[in-house]
Amino acid sequence: MGASSLQQCKPRLRQTFETSDGYSSLIVRWFREMSTPKSNAEVVAETVRRARTLPRPIGEKLLLDLVRYDSVRLATSLASLSLPVMAVQSTYSNEQRERQSMTKGKATPYLNMLRTNVPSARVEIIPDTGHFPQIDNATQVNGLLDDFVGSLGTAAHS
Fold first, then answer.
1. N or C end of the chain: smaller count of CB under 10 Å?
2. 128 and 36 in contact (C-beta within 8 Å)?
3. CB environment 85-109: b (16+ within 10 A), e (fewer)
């Protein structure tokens, strides 16, 4: 998501929160959109249920703070890292704020920002997977993590 998209997101969130069921319906929609038909339906239902249990004032503040952090501080925070970084991305939100599964080689505003601020970052795309690849595709994610951690030991001894 680009900075202008993030700046537009905050007023839309505030407007959504003004309606009596705005927060709850947004949470349900967002968390359902984070899954794919391949996702375990019971896990998706439990994730939605748990997300809805967060008290509305806390959830609203959390989402607004998240948007503010992403638009104001994320790039600077990433640029200040001096450690190896691996980013695993499986979904993104398009300009219409619709969640889409990634495809290999796909560029997104987030990945472009990451590559600008952390040129050495290792980027891994897990295609055709929901927003929670650590659940939907645990074997692949664990393999990527094992490989990344293993490469750190090699780099430290070089």
1. C
2. yes
3. eeebbbbbbeeeeebebbeeeeebb
Model pTM greater than 0.85?
no
Distance CA 98, CA 11 (A): 17
Residues 6+ apart with CB under 8 A from 29: none
φ/ψ (deg, to 5) at 124: -120, 125
Return the DSSP state at 157: T
Q: Where are the domains of the chain?
A: 3-156
- Give the length of the chain: 158
Residue with tokens 């984070």: 34
Q: How far apart are CA 85 and CA 78, in angstroms?
A: 9
pLDDT digits (tens, 9 = 90+) for 18-47: 888 888 888 888 888 899 888 999 999 999
